[in-house]
Design goal:
A hairpin with a 2-residue loop joins strand 4 and strand 5. Helix 4 packs across helix 5 and helix 6 runs parallel beside helix 7. By secondary structure, the protein is α/β, with parallel strands linked by helices. The chain has 2 domains: about 240 residues, P-loop containing nucleotide triphosphate hydrolases (Rossmann fold); about 80 residues, no CATH class. The protein contains 11 helices and 12 strands. It is globular.
Length: about 325
């Protein structure tokens, strides 16, 4: 039985940058370069990597908030990238987003009531149904109705993110992209928001694309994880396999940088060595090549394909291609 809710095929996003005195020099930045993955109904798919690797750009393209250069996105078998206007508007309620910074994503001039009511008005929900839905949304985030006349400036950071979550739920979505939803919060508040997202997922049968640079956070919430580096997917596996048996040198580097509270365990952890050069990729080869101590001759000449090394565990690295070993 196919349980696939979202499917991404060969997705690309290239930006053209002009430089020089007259802007005559053009440079193509491959923010997202030919990535593919799928997300099953009811699961949380974590997307991790350093800042600037293309995680957020990917999330926005999946929701058609940003137009892809090429590639396809499917929702329940229906292609989203070919839709526009009324067709896209009809699908929008099923696809929502939680942005990283609630201070920037919520209008400071609007009250809590108008923030929650706005998406309902846009999609033609009548007044009585709107009022009923707002009460339901408040219950999800444990807010009192006395908060409805307050403005964003009267709430704490954690409360604002709860409001952002409630707004994303207004139209009963099936799929939510959570873009760094806890990175702007204190650690103690992060746990509360993560637990809220997990509880809501179980209660409302939600599916998440969870974007973060924090591997410990991703491990806590995710069923499967994809690792991105400079626009490419370098590893993809279920959470247990990826954290217990990372294959790609970049994944091992990321995991070695996660802080360990126990000094004894931290001292026993194997150190991952890398070249301390720039992150600039080679023109034709692997994008991690300039930083990798395990590179082969082929690494500078050819981009490795994402192959299934073991069941459900994919890696984009020539070290695991039998032809090159």
């Amino acid at each position: 039985m196919n349980n696939e809710l979202v499917k991404v095929e060969s997705l690309k996003k290239y930006f053209s940058l002009k430089s020089g005195l007259l802007g005559n020099n053009k440079k193509i930045v491959k923010a997202v370069d030919n990535i593919s993955f799928s997300i099953n109904k009811g699961e949380t798919f974590g997307l991790v990597g350093e800042s600037g690797c293309g995680k957020s750009t990917t999330g926005k393209m999946v929701l058609r908030l940003l137009e892809p250069t090429s590639g396809k996105v499917f929702f329940k078998g229906e292609e989203l990238t070919s839709k526009s206007g009324k067709e896209l508007l009809a699908i929008r309620p099923n696809l929502q987003m939680i942005f990283q910074n609630p201070y920037g994503s919520l209008d400071p001039k609007m009250t809590l009531k108008t923030i929650l009511e706005e998406p309902l008005k846009i999609h033609g929900v009548n007044k009585n149904s709107r009022e009923k839905r707002i009460k339901e949304l408040l219950s999800y985030i444990s807010f009192s109705s006395s908060y409805l006349d307050r403005h964003p400036g009267e709430f704490s950071g954690g409360q604002l993110q709860r409001i952002a979550i409630a707004r994303s739920l207004a139209l009963n979505p099936q799929f939510i992209v959570a873009d760094e939803p806890v990175s702007a919060l204190d650690v103690s508040i992060q746990a509360q928001i993560l637990n809220l997202l997990i509880d809501l997922q179980k209660e409302l049968e939600l599916t998440y694309l969870f974007i973060s640079h924090d591997l410990s956070v991703v491990q806590y919430v995710s069923d499967r994880v994809g690792v991105m580096y400079l626009g490419r997917m370098v590893e993809l596996a279920d959470c247990e396999s990826l954290y217990n048996n990372p294959l790609h040198p970049y994944t091992r580097l990321l995991l070695s940088s996660v802080p360990i509270a126990d000094p004894e365990r931290a001292s026993q952890r194997k150190k991952v060595e890398i070249n301390k050069g720039s992150q600039q990729k080679t023109s034709n080869g692997c994008r991690f090549c300039s930083r990798c101590n395990e590179k082969l001759a082929i690494c500078e000449e050819e981009v490795p394909e994402l192959i299934e090394y073991s069941k459900g565990h994919f890696v984009s690295c020539h070290l695991y291609n039998k032809e090159h070993i």
